[in-house]
Amino acid sequence: MKKILIIEDDPHLRKLYEIEITEMGFEVMSALNSHDALNKVRDENPQVVLLDLMLANMNGLDLLRDILSINSNLPVIINSAYPYCKNDFRCWGAEDFIVKSSDLSELKNLLDKY
Hints:
The protein is of the alpha/beta class. It has a single domain, classed as Rossmann fold (3-Layer(aba) Sandwich). The protein is 42% helix and 21% strand. Helix 2 (34-44) runs parallel beside helix 3. It is globular, with a radius of gyration of 12 Å. The termini are close together.
């Protein structure tokens, strides 16, 4: 079973993702801050990371850089409410970008890719 790490500081959205992605058949771990996220990347070996760009304690791009310094082959999907960022995600080192939505079908398709 594929392990997905969700990094999202909004508790309601994080819970929605945890429930829905688990129902999609994935093993789900979540982190609400950068310290917890980096520990999970190091210790739990997720196969995919779903990363919110706007985190309370750290810029998501800084966290992305730190994640990739631990595992440069780890696919990271940027999850943002800001669609204008979609043009830049590859130059940041992320594999994919998805605009936050209550319709998770696009997210499921992305997760199935990895």
